[in-house]
Amino acid sequence: MSDTVEKSKLVMFKDGDKFKLAYRVALQFIDPYPANWQVYVDAANGDVLKSFNAVNNDGPTTGSGYGVLGDSKTLNTYLSAGYYYLFDTTKPMNGVIETYTAQNGSSLPGAYSVDSNNAWTSSSQGADVDANYYAGKVYDYYLNTHGRNSFDNAGASISSTVHYSYKYNNAFWNGSQMVYGDGDGVQFRPLSGALDVVAHELTHAVTERTAGLNYSYQSGALNESMSDVFGYFLDPNDWLMGEDVYTPGTAGDGLRSLSNPKLYGQPDNMSGYVNTSSDNGGVHTNSGIPNKAAYNTITAIGKAKAEKIYYRALTRYMTPTTNFSGARAALLSATADLYGSTSAEYTAVKTAWTNVGVN
Ligand SMILES: [Ca+2]
Ligand SMILES: [Ca+2]
Ligand SMILES: [Ca+2]
Ligand SMILES: [Zn+2]
């Protein structure tokens, strides 16, 4: 033991859900094998709470796990002091993509999601896995397709909290992070399990930092529609929103439909516009009208052109007070920039909006 270096320090140790006062004892030696043993000893009774050999392997690593739907995923994680974190440091951003758990409470951001062996395989971890994995997908989409580095275009961290509240049937962007409920198992599964839901919420953050569409009446319905439309751009295999987590007992349905808004009680034309003061002036109802215009556009010119037009309109032409007619004008301006005002694309965007009664 003559070459052993021994250090100890009083620290807080996380033992399950509890924090305990502990001595962290570090034992470092080279013979008979290189070691950096970290031993946590309960300060109250001397019990060894945890011990592991941390030979300088703290840092970014790769783990694996199952998403909400039970699908296998490779995860960018981070090892620190014997615990693995959903902490993706592989993106060219200033921050990281990180996930917390509210542990069914309501304080935000909550505690870091951690795992002891980097196999995120317990069924309750599906929400944590997908929140981080899909946030990474949305980050990649905005960077690779639009050259936008995170929601603020300055590489800000993307933070998510899962297991928010109890059986909570919703997800939201709270102005600084994403928050997901577990759902009650009947109306929803854990909401981070749907890429289009994650894209929808993160797009609210993009909208907030760009057009800044006021969240009421027509500008609010446009704000909702932009989130649904980018939800489609991220998950273009169907026209439904949230189908992967909505009503686990019923196949083939969704929260909303871009191709057929009426299927879920939304108007698909100005003739059906709902005048109401509830839901911030019907933002989740009247979004059906611009959603249908987006469907008309995408089916006419294809996703690749449509997403360029929508991103340009959202980030350069729309303002906090843009209404449906202003959205048509913003999209036409963006189309003219990209394809010219005598292009087939320009005519297609015009027709898309005329066909939902917006001039
Ligand atoms: Ca594990
Ligand atoms: Ca979908
Ligand atoms: Ca369903
Ligand atoms: Zn929304």
TrEMBL record:
It comes from the Bacteria. One of its GO terms (cellular component) is extracellular region. Transmembrane segments: none annotated. Its cofactor is Zn(2+). Its main location: secreted. Its EC number is 3.4.24.-. The active site is at 201, 284 (proton donor). One of its GO terms (molecular function) is metal ion binding. Keywords: Hydrolase, Metal-binding, Metalloprotease, Protease, Secreted, Zinc. Residues 62-208 form the Peptidase M4 domain. Residues 211-358 form the Peptidase M4 C-terminal domain. The keyword Metal-binding applies. Signal peptide: none annotated. InterPro entries: Peptidase_M4 (IPR023612), Peptidase_M4/M1_CTD_sf (IPR027268), Peptidase_M4_C_domain (IPR001570), Peptidase_M4_domain (IPR013856), Zinc_Metalloprotease_M4 (IPR050728). CDD domains: M4_TLP. It is an enzyme of class 3 (hydrolase). It is found in: Secreted. One of its GO terms (biological process) is proteolysis. Belongs to the peptidase M4 family. Extracellular zinc metalloprotease. This is Neutral metalloproteinase.
